[in-house]
Design a protein that fits this description.
It contains eleven helices and no strands. By secondary structure, the protein is mainly alpha-helical. It has two domains: about 110 residues, no CATH class; about 120 residues, no CATH class. α10 packs antiparallel against α11. The radius of gyration is 21 Å and the shape is globular.
Length: about 280
């Protein structure tokens, strides 16, 4: 669910940056216009079909990615459907989309905060053990499990390297510094060219401060508990993706599109680290 939301936000930023840089082209002709909301519907139905047809972990992740991209295409055209003149550029649209994502994120957290029962845990363990042995698992699932085993071995070699912790600290410290510097530069440049007051700089600064604080907490925790440090880094990354990058688009499409790709790479790296560290616990 988290991955779906991340890909949905990334899709919206990519779409809006692409449209802004290409002069808002339209697909169609002869009085026809194929709105990208339709591509969103296609992505979501493909995701639903995958999730209803397969239960293995690889297909669930693929369904989350395709569903997130589809939802991003769909919700990006919200402005057209809440205004009488079908205004895609309706100014509050980004804020409304942001609120929708925050509500969805909190709802997902609430649903998944309930711990599994002993029966659920035992059933899950039995299924995982059966898949690990081969059993009746599909070819795709067996490939996934073999790849997962190799990745675990690779992670063990990675964390045992002497430079792992120093490099990880330095990397996130650089990410935090660059993010703070970029936001301050963009906000300052925008404010010099506009006399209108807006709450955006305040939200941007607060999100950046919180994100940077989580990075510092992660760096401190790294010497005590790797998985705790990874989780603080993940919280920082999620704030950057779901809040900071979305508002950064207001100031610079190019900066937002570059930032979202970097943060997506960091997000997937942290998902890998958290998963592998959890398997060792």
């Amino acid at each position: 669910m988290e991955m779906m939301l991340v890909f949905a936000v990334a899709t919206i930023l990519v779409i809006r940056a692409f449209l802004a840089l290409t002069g808002y082209p339209q697909l169609g002709g002869g009085g026809l216009h194929i709105a990208h909301m339709l591509w969103g519907g296609l992505g979501m139905i493909i995701s639903i079909a995958l999730l209803l047809s397969y239960w293995n972990p690889a297909m669930r992740q693929l369904g989350a990615v395709i569903g997130g991209i589809g939802f991003g295409f769909f919700i990006d055209e919200l402005g057209k459907f809440i205004t009488s003149d079908n205004d895609y550029f309706f100014q509050p649209t980004i804020a409304l989309i942001y609120i929708i994502f925050i509500i969805l994120f909190l709802a997902v957290r609430a649903v998944h905060s309930k711990p599994l029962t002993e029966t659920e845990t035992s059933t899950n363990k039995s299924i995982i053990d059966a898949i690990s042995r081969g059993g009746e698992a599909s070819r795709v699932t067996r490939i996934y499990m073999r790849a997962n085993k190799r990745l675990r071995e690779m992670y063990l070699r990675l964390v045992s390297a002497r430079l792992f912790s120093p490099v990880l600290r330095a990397a996130f410290l650089i990410i935090g510094i660059v993010q703070v510097f970029t936001i301050i530069t963009l906000v300052a440049g925008r404010e010099r060219g506009s006399v209108s007051e807006s709450p955006m700089p305040v939200i941007e600064h607060l999100a950046t401060i919180v994100s940077a604080s989580f990075i510092i907490l992660g760096i401190i925790q790294l010497t005590r508990s790797r998985i705790s440090a990874y989780r603080w880094f993940m919280r920082s990354t999620l704030i950057s993706i779901l809040i900071t990058q979305a508002f950064m688009f207001y100031y610079s499409e190019l900066a937002a599109i570059g930032g979202i790709f970097v943060h997506l790479l960091v997000y997937f790296a942290l998902r890998f680290l958290i998963k592998k560290e959890g398997e060792l616990a």
